[in-house]
Design brief:
Blueprint (H helix, E strand, L loop, with lengths): L28 E9 L3 E6 L2 E6 L6 E10 L2 E11 L27 H18 L3 H11 L8 E3 L9 E6 L5 E4 L6 E3 L8 H4 L19 E7 L2 E6 L2 E3 L5 E2 L4 E5 L2 E5 L11 H13 L6 E5 L7 H4 L7 E6 L2 H10 L5 E5 L4 H11 L5 E5 L8 H9 L4 E6 L2 H13 L2 E10 L8 E8 L6
Parallel strand pairs: 3-5, 6-21, 16-17, 16-19, 17-18, 19-20
Antiparallel strand pairs: 1-2, 1-4, 2-3, 4-5, 7-8, 7-10, 8-9, 10-11, 11-12, 12-13, 14-15, 20-22, 21-22
Helix pairs in contact: 1-2, 1-9, 7-8
């Protein structure tokens, strides 16, 4: 995640200078946008240049106002919809509209339209980044263009976020960053957060929270099993505004409480933990494995799903965050599991796979950061004869790169599911299983 400048400071740009410093013509143009691109924009063409237009929907004719440029690529926002799509709906979050804050790029798109959008983004990245061969390999799993069946969407498309962060502007109001900018903009609502978080009324003129925070402070709000908590600067507060110590919280998933760090990572959507666990079950239901290695295992959300395999003899879970590992040891106490706090490098993965020394089939489950798995780990899978790899990815571009690397190392994609657990945004989650198909990886 890119660093942000201190609250209240704005980067000064000339009227004809982009956010990446390239000059461009700021005059609006009329064009038809054709397909979605990862990042929340649609691609169209005008006067020999490619336009990436935000706040549009594929198939629409729009008036687009440029705000940035890089070479022959122009970045713009749709300021007028000439021919609207049937998937267009009134935005649920006006603050995230043209010229507004980031984090709600698809709030003007229907739920059905968002499924179509995200399915096409995955197809596009597999084709452009993974290449024709990889795209053909995934064709039977993805279905035809225009078919969103591969995308499983969360039932709750509003009031779903269990955490949010914002900055207090110079006037004492909650603010977020304008999309692709360091400029802060006051927000008047946030309909994506849970109802209990919205009930705390951070956004109004007479909010009592304004007495507790100061301009420039960063605010974090979480909604967990114990209730809603608010971090102002470095100090946590109850939903009533009382200061308290908060080192651990819990989230209820499938009837079980999972401990987590209030300052750390947890899945944002209320339904996401359950959906990810179900997706892992579906990805592995047709295979049997005696040994499993879980990479980037976090607080153990998926670990006990792997333990449900009756034949499992050993499971090693590797996570770089020592705090997450402490919670994982609390969440999953089965003697078959060895929780390790290690940097997930190719050398370390190879060492752990060799140390498992198990007969029969082995499985690797990896949920890497946005940058992806990488060449080194993909090569280790082949070298150590891993039978199956389940890859969980939040970025379609890095997923396409990793899928291509696994293919080069003797693996074939046999299962794919796309989860829309970030409704109203361009984000998505991909769960795929790859199986070894040649002697070098069997």
């Amino acid at each position: 995640m890119s660093s942000r400048k201190r609250a209240g400071r704005k980067r000064k740009l000339s009227a004809q200078q982009s956010r990446v410093g390239t000059s461009f013509d700021p005059q609006p143009v009329s064009l038809r946008v054709e397909r979605p691109a990862h990042g929340g924009a649609c691609v169209g063409f005008h006067d020999g240049k490619a336009y990436f237009v935000k706040h549009a929907i594929p198939g629409e004719t729009v008036v687009a106002k440029p705000y940035a440029a890089k070479g022959k690529v122009v970045f713009a926002e749709a300021i007028e919809i000439t021919v609207p799509s049937s998937q267009r709906v009134p935005t649920i979050w006006p603050d995230a509209g043209p010229g507004g804050v980031g984090g709600g790029e698809l709030c003007h798109v229907s739920a059905a339209g968002q499924r179509l959008w995200k399915a096409e983004v995955v197809r596009d990245n597999l084709r452009r980044i993974g290449g024709t061969g990889l795209a053909q390999e995934f064709a039977s799993l993805l279905g035809e263009s225009g078919d969103p069946a591969i995308v499983t969407q969360a039932r709750q498309t509003q009031a779903w976020r269990t955490r949010c962060e914002f900055v207090i502007d110079e006037d004492g109001y909650p603010a977020m960053f304008v999309s692709e900018s360091n400029e802060l903009r006051r927000v008047h609502s946030f309909p994506l957060v849970t109802n209990d978080m919205q009930a705390l009324d951070f956004w109004s003129e007479d909010s009592t929270w304004r007495e507790l925070w100061r301009p420039g402070q960063r605010i974090r709000v979480i909604d967990c099993a114990e209730g809603v908590f608010v971090r102002i600067g470095k100090n946590w507060h109850s939903s009533e505004g009382k200061r308290l110590l908060l080192n651990e919280v819990h989230y209820r998933v499938d009837g079980k409480l999972f401990a987590a760090d209030p300052n750390g990572f947890w899945q944002a959507h209320l339904e996401a933990p359950h959906m990810l666990r179900e997706a892992l079950k579906q990805a592995t239901q047709e295979i049997t494995y005696w040994g499993a290695l879980e990479l980037y295992s976090g607080a153990g959300l998926l670990t006990d799903v792997l333990l449900a395999e009756s034949q499992l003899e050993s499971l090693i879970a590797i996570e770089g965050s020592s705090q997450a590992v402490l919670h994982a040891r609390e969440n999953v106490t089965d003697a078959k599991v060895k929780h390790l706090s290690l940097s997930v490098t190719a050398n370390e993965v190879e060492k752990q796979l060799v140390d498992m020394d198990l007969p029969g089939e082995s499985l690797v489950v990896a949920d890497p950061p946005r940058s992806g798995l990488g060449r080194g780990i993909a090569e280790v899978m082949r070298k150590c004869a891993v039978a199956d790899v389940v890859l969980i990815s939040c970025d379609p571009a890095s997923f396409a790169r990793d899928a291509a690397l696994l293919r080069q190392n003797g693996y074939q994609a046999v299962h794919l599911q796309v989860l829309d657990i970030f409704p109203g945004t361009y984000h998505l989650e991909i769960v795929a299983r790859f199986t070894a198909i040649d002697s070098s990886a069997k």
